[in-house]
Amino acid sequence: MSTQLTTRNLFRVILCILALGCRVQAGGGFFEDFSDGSIQDGSPVTWGLDPSYDKGVTGEWQVTPEGLQVTPDWPACKTHPTTRMVRDAYGRNVQYTGSITIRTQVKMPEATTGYGSSVWLFLRGTSGDNCYFICITREALWICRMDGPEVGYSPMEGWHYWMNGSFDAKNDVMIQVDAIDLTDTAGNRTTSRFEARWWVAGQAMPVEPQLAVYDAKYDAGTIGIGVGCEYEQNKTAIFRWIEVIGSEIEVVPIVDFNGDGTVDIDDLLRLIESWGQDDPTVDVVPDGVVDKKDLEVLMDHWQQDVNDPTLVAHWALDETEGSVAYNSVGPKGGIVLGGAVWRPDAGQLAGALEFDGVDDMIVAGPVVDPSKGPFSVLAWVKGGAPGQVIFSQTGGVNWLMADASQGLLKTELRSAGRFAKVLCSQTTITDGDWHRVALVCDGSNRILYVDDVAAAQDVQTNLTGASGNLLIGAGSTLAPGTFWSGLIDDVRIYNRAVRP
Question: Rounded distance, CA 110 to CA 69, Å?
Answer without folding.
Answer: 13
